[in-house]
Amino acid sequence: METWNAMELCVADNYTVRFGREPQAESLKRALDFLGAVMQTLVAKEAGYGKIDDHKVEVFAPDCTPEMRIRVRLDEKLTRISRLGVDTTDEDTLLDLVGYLALLAGMRTRDAHETSRG
């Protein structure tokens, strides 16, 4: 995980998040570090797998939209958590879960923006 920098968190070469002030609570600093790791994971997965909107293998589920694929992955992660619980070794599961939620939110925001531009 990134170490905390008072005013900015550099996630990747082209992605930097700037903050107006340094958070005081240690738990908030750790949460921001975790979110930085989520952002790094998303950027790395896009570099490895390509844009999420282009993921269309369409072998077993030709009518499955990118949003539906994300929802399935969320269901899988939540099922894993409900069956196995979460402990300190499950950071990848939590990173993936938060990442998929962020992607879903991004897709819904994009869709709402496109609908309003109509």
State the low-pLDDT regions, or none.
Answer: none
Biggest β-sheet: count, sense, barrel? 2 strands, antiparallel
Approximately how much beta-strand content do the residues carry?
A: 5-15%
Mean pLDDT level: 78
Order of helices and strands: EEHHH
Quickly count the domains. Answer: 2
Instruction: Please count the beta strands (DSSP E, at least 2 residues each).
Output: 2
Q: Tell me the overall shape.
A: globular
Q: How large is the radius of gyration?
A: 16 Å
Portion of residues within helices: 55-70%
> Distance N terminus to C terminus?
41 Å
Class from helix and strand fractions: mainly alpha
Helical segment count: 3
Write out key terms for the chains shown.
118 residues, mainly alpha
Q: How would you explain this protein's 3D organization?
A:
The protein is mainly alpha-helical and 118 residues long. It has 2 domains: 1-50, no CATH class; 51-118, no CATH class. The protein has helices spanning 26-49, 66-84, 91-117, and strands spanning 8-12, 15-18. The chain has a two-stranded antiparallel sheet with strand order 1-2. Strand 1 (8-12) and strand 2 form a beta hairpin. Helix 1 crosses helix 3 (91-117). The radius of gyration is 16 Å and the shape is globular. The protein starts with 7 loop residues before the first strand and ends with a helix.
